Amino acid sequence: MADLAVDDRLAAEVRLFDIDKSAADRNAAIGNRFADCSNGAAARYKSYSSLEEALNGAEIVVISILPGSLDDMAADIEIPARYGVSQSVGDTVGPGGFMRAMRAIPMIADIGLAIKRCSPDAYVCNLTNPMSVLTGALHKVFPGIRAWGECHEVTKIRKLVAALANKNADSASFTHRDVEVNVLGINHFTFVDKISVRGKDMLPQYREFSNENRQSGWTDPSEISSDAEHDRFFGSRNLVSFDLLQRFGMPAAAGDRHLAEFLPGRYYLEDPESWGFALTPIEYRKKDRAIKIARLEQAARGEAPLFGKKSDEALTDQIVALMSGQPFISNVNLPNVGQIAGLADGTIVETNAVFSGRGIQPIFSGSLPPALLEIIKDHAQRQTNLLDAVLTSDVAPLVELFASDPLVRHLPKAQARALYTQMVAATSHLLPKEIARAA
């Protein structure tokens, strides 16, 4: 909403739908407050009672849902912890990401089919995690859908490089928007093999900086807030990123809390504090969410000033490019059609793509180091197989897929099955009946 308020290129009619109508009403009130004080083209907001009504004839669709509640997410984190399986986030891979995907795939599939009925020509942006699986679900249920997955994690390395460029220039001339990177990987486990700022190659300097700070780490000053508890549970010192560069020879682009979950727990999650990050407890998420909702309700009633400012997100720029035809390059999640060598066609991968009046064209990004490719291929194939199993209600492969994740595979088979069964039971009310019964 803040991005639309400061943008002078989009005069949007924004339709809001939520299964909790009161939340959509509240957000419409906030959006229209932004519009009233807008410096831009004054996007207007209205809430709708049905998904079909909101979607009918839409040009752009943005999907951002929570598949379940924070209590459900608590089960995703706390049950594996009893088996000695730690997770820093638990929404992408690992046992938490697996369960979240099983809950969310049917929800996203329903939305994808509604888009097919009501706005088949729309461009569709998915913001929901697990990003790869759910973006894949949209393409599975609606072949030909013009959908992409949007994630801001690559902003982290771009901000670091902008800081290096500013240090060189002895000024604050550069932001992350001036940093160009060539992205390769899958969502939340992304890497870059080219980095430049206004034509200058910054990869050598990044390597040098990483090596110099691989023991002490580095924290982005813009990520430091006045809330020490928030910074403790959501911050990092980039030590995992720097270590992965040493291991694989290619800079990691995502945040440490996500990167850590793609490798066996003994690497980073066994002692996360020594790697400069923390495991985020659900109780803190609940507390933080309650504070944010209270602030939103005050803003909707006009009892508090609007707190938004232009964000680090690229979504508004992507939409403008699609609507205006003015090209814009951004990292996105799309089916692989050859942009990453060595991964199967159709695999949801994260690379750069060109947004323009011709749509979204992925950019050929090249290849990954062999050892890194094997890790990514393992996760990507598991995500593809999980998606297929849930969409076809094929329960047979689910336990084996679950047990094959790097955070789980060290467990004896009986323990892995017990963990799977307990996690399914904890959120069975949100799972397809066939899956819940089979567990």
TrEMBL record:
Q: Could you tell me what this protein is called?
A: Alpha-galacturonidase
For this protein, what does the record note about how its cofactor is bound? Answer: Binds 1 NAD(+) per subunit.
Q: Which SUPFAM superfamilies match?
A: LDH C-terminal domain-like, NAD(P)-binding Rossmann-fold domains
- Report the residue ranges that make up the Glycosyl hydrolase family 4 C-terminal domain in this protein: 183-408
Cross-referenced Pfam families, in alphabetical order? Answer: Glyco_hydro_4, Glyco_hydro_4C
The organism's superkingdom is given as Bacteria
Which family does the similarity line name?
A: Belongs to the glycosyl hydrolase 4 family.
| Keyword terms of this UniProt record | Carbohydrate metabolism, Glycosidase, Hydrolase, Manganese, Metal-binding, NAD
* Listed cofactors: Mn(2+); NAD(+)
Q: Which residues cross the membrane?
A: none
